[in-house]
Specification:
single chain; 536 residues; alpha/beta; Flavocytochrome C3, Chain A, domain 1; 5-stranded parallel beta sheet; 5-stranded mixed beta sheet; 27 strands; globular; L-aspartate oxidase; L-aspartate oxidase activity; FAD
């Protein structure tokens, strides 16, 4: 059993900080929510690194929203539902496609400068979108531009207090209600921060896998702490692998945006043969899970560790103008996007599941909200549609703040004292983390089987005694959070005996609409719960 709290403490014996809203995380979800909340509330924003460290900064492709008259929310809704493979919440998708445009306008008012063509917002198309509806900035640096604009706003607002290099160990709950967080300061001192609402904006769990497009901070902290606090966790078996991450000696698994394929790039195996026509009618613009598995299949057929992405047939000027960041990054490693075929392979990219929320971003624990990748709003279903993630963060960030504004302040400090018999000092977790990543890649990756999942779970369970250790360091807390997310992902993948979206079981290769059009939920006390989906 995973304990509710990772460390021993007594609230009476540690310093208290009181505020209105606690925002944990500094990606687009955290920045935008903090800015919106600061209009009527005092905000403490906590991030374990710095304001500019987040997944958002690495988002290249853009943000999806209906911004021209040829497009419509109905088209965007249909594309999202198709990509989600039958598991999207129709209500949540309706919220996204109808409120997304206003959210984008909010970003522009806050200083985000999207690319323009002929005096109008430039729109591109990505995989599984039927229309051009992706706004981008500086060609392929959309996330960095949004973070730049929003972080400037955060820095300028007096009632947002920014805590860099602080780590939230656990959420404090009392009678099924979240009343604050236990936070470790850079010097190791712990404090209790109380607020009328806590908003998790902690991003995903990409570091579950050795090969990932995510930065090193993506350790699933929000999902794990919400799980310990008694919140429902949903759809954890659905991990999206991006089909095209750079695969080159000495280079990190740098993301080669889906927009490159949107602008005409094709995939070739190591023999130089284009192959996507054998796998899907949309070819290179098929949903990500289809493209990623097709690449793995070609790699197996040709006994190679990568395939090629080829945009050399397009205009060099267009490629350099549209993808300056990708062009320069590849050039730094001796690869010229305009003339070379770029070696790529799938890498873990995005977590569709997360902390279950309602349409206002509130979790099953009162006063606890989740926004962005850490949340499971129902928008993404079994497979996220490209560029819907940034839209989701702003749409539900606005809704969360509207809900928070209706909450009454917390009157009392809870009397909580945790004393356990923690038996061990932790061993070095660097090796443990690497081992966990290898287990996940081997047994809980793009292709799964019952035998492999059983073996993976058995190996993960051997690590559970770490919860009986004295945890003090950031990397120790991150490891137990990763271990929690790894267990939830593997358990969900074992229970779901079908293939759907980003979850593929070799032993159950077909999609089963009769039995499995439902969600798998995890609860710390109740275990695994199944939830049937509402029908259209």
């Amino acid at each position: 059993m995973i304990p509710q709290y990772l460390v021993d403490f007594s609230i009476d014996q540690i310093p208290h900080i009181h505020t209105d809203v606690i925002v944990i995380g500094s990606g687009i979800a955290g920045l935008f929510t903090a800015i919106k909340a600061s209009k009527d509330s005092d905000v403490v924003m906590i991030t374990k690194k710095t304001l500019l460290d987040s997944n958002t900064r690495y988002a290249q492709g853009g943000i999806a929203a209906v911004m021209n008259e040829k497009d419509s929310p109905a088209y965007h809704r249909q594309d999202t539902l198709i990509a989600g493979a039958g598991l999207c919440s129709v209500e949540a998708v309706n919220v996204l496609v109808h409120e997304g445009p206003d959210g984008v306008k909010d970003l522009m008012k806050l200083g985000t400068q999207f690319d323009e063509e002929n005096g109008e917002i430039a729109l591109t198309k990505e995989g599984a979108h039927s229309q051009r509806r992706i706004l981008h900035a500086h060609g392929d640096a959309t996330g960095a531009e949004i973070v730049r604009a929003l972080s400037n706003q955060v820095s300028d607002r007096e009632n947002i207090e920014m805590w860099d290099d602080h780590f939230v160990i656990d959420l404090i709950t009392n009678d099924g209600e979240c009343c604050g967080a236990l936070v470790q300061k850079p010097d190791g001192e712990r404090v209790y921060v109380q607020g009328k609402a806590v908003v998790l904006c902690t991003g995903g769990s990409g570091q579950l896998f050795r090969y990932t497009t995510n930065p090193i901070i993506a350790t699933g902290d929000g999902v794990a702490m919400a799980y310990r606090a008694g919140a429902l966790i949903k759809d954890m078996e659905f991990i999206q692998f991006h089909p095209t991450a750079l695969y080159y000696p000495g280079a990190p698994r740098f993301l080669i945006s889906e927009a490159v394929r949107g602008e005409g790039a094709v995939l070739r195996n190591i023999k130089g043969e284009r192959f996507m026509d054998q796998y899907h009618t949309q070819m290179e613009l098929a949903p990500r899970d289809v493209v990623a598995r097709a690449i793995v299949s070609e790699m197996a057929k040709t006994n190679s560790t990568f395939v090629y992405l080829d945009i050399s047939h397009e205009s060099p000027d267009m490629v350099k103008h549209r993808f300056p960041t990708i062009y320069q990054f590849c050039l730094d490693y001796g690869l010229d996007l305009t003339i070379d075929w770029i070696p790529v392979a799938p890498a873990a990219h995005y977590m569709m599941g997360g902390v279950k929320t309602d349409l206002n971003g509130e979790t099953s624990v009162k006063r606890l909200f989740a926004c962005g990748e850490v949340s499971s709003t129902g928008v993404h279903g079994a497979n996220r549609l490209a560029s819907n993630s940034l839209s989701e963060a702003i749409v539900f960030g606005r809704r969360i703040v509207n809900q928070i504004n209706q909450l009454s302040p917390l009157k009392h400090v809870p009397k909580i004292k945790v004393e356990t018999d923690r038996k061990y000092n932790t061993q070095a977790v660097v090796e443990r983390r690497l081992k966990l990543q290898k287990i996940m890649l081997r047994y809980v990756g793009l292709e799964r089987t019952l035998k492999g999942l059983d073996k993976g779970l058995a190996e993960l369970k051997r690590q559970l005694p770490v919860f009986e250790s004295h945890l003090t360091k950031l990397e120790e807390f991150e490891f137990v959070n990763l271990l929690t997310c790894a267990m939830l992902t593997a358990e969900g993948a074992k229970v779901r005996e079908e293939s759907r979206g980003a979850h593929y079981r070799e032993d159950f290769p077909e999609r089963d609409e009769i039995v499995w059009r439902k969600h798998i939920l995890h609860h710390r006390d109740q275990g695994i719960v199944e939830e049937c989906i509402e029908h259209d």
